Structure formats: C-alpha cells, structure tokens
Amino acid sequence: MRPDSFVPDSFVADGAEQPMAEINMIPMIDVMLVLLVVFILTAPLLAQAVKVDLPREVAAADSPLPADITLSVDKDGQVWWDTAAVTPAELDRRLDDAGRQADPPEVRIRADRAVDYGHVADVMALAARKGLHRLAFVSDPAPAP
C-alpha cells in the first residue's frame, strides 16, 4: 500500500505492471473435488466381506464314520491303526485295501505334538499313493471360554 492512501498497489495504474504473486486456488479445488468423487465411488468396492459378529460356541466334534480310518502317529514315529500298532508293511497293505474300495474312506491323522513332521508326511504320502485323497487332521478342541 502506498503510505499516502488506503488504495492497494494493485488498483493503481501507474504503468509499472507487477507480476501476479497470488496462487490460483480454483484448479486445486477442482482436482480435490474430482479425487473426492473418485474416493466416494470406489470406497464401497473395497469392502469385500460382510461384517458379522459371529456367536462363540463350542461345537461337538465330528464323530468318525465307521468306514473312516484313524491313524495315530506317536512321538516316536510309531503308526497306530485305530488302537493297534502296525508295521510299515502292514500299514501299506491296509491302506492299499482301503484305497481299492469304490468309495475310499477318509483318513483321519492324529499326530503327537512332538512327532517329527517327516513321519506325518510319510503317512500322508503313502495314503495319497494308495488313492486315499481325503485326509483330515484331528486336534483337541480349544476349551470353552
């Protein structure tokens, strides 16, 4: 401002044009509005699941069907067919017989927590080679809260 008046310098036409040093906010506001519209349109697409507060109940464990096979592997790697210990040759023969059935049964594997994974993998691979592809792992259910 000039000291002798209250008229700003930009309104005085004295021939000396100065460059405009103000930021033009209109293009930035336009960009922000476009981004806001894009965000509003795409936000509902980001939610892929319905949020539901599910009940917390302890369900009874599935009881095995009579035809299902329960194999247990103890911490020493010994394999048990139901409650009887079996040798590798006998396990091979029994799994071969079960795999030849018209409707092969499910093999439920109960492995000790301390058993080497290699023993469990061997049992799984043997069952798969014999045509028993439905494998399940049995675990103790968590205690009710």
From TrEMBL:
One of its GO terms (molecular function) is transmembrane transporter activity. The keyword Nucleotide-binding does not apply. It comes from the Bacteria. Keywords: Cell inner membrane, Cell membrane, Membrane, Protein transport, Transmembrane, Transmembrane helix, Transport. It is found in: Cell inner membrane; Cell membrane. Its main location: membrane. It holds the Pfam family ExbD. The chain crosses the membrane at residues 25-47. Coiled coil: none annotated. GO terms for cellular component: plasma membrane. GO terms for biological process: protein transport. It is a single-pass type II membrane protein. Belongs to the ExbD/TolR family. The accessory proteins ExbB and ExbD seem to form a complex with TonB. Involved in the TonB-dependent energy-dependent transport of various receptor-bound substrates. This is Biopolymer transporter ExbD.
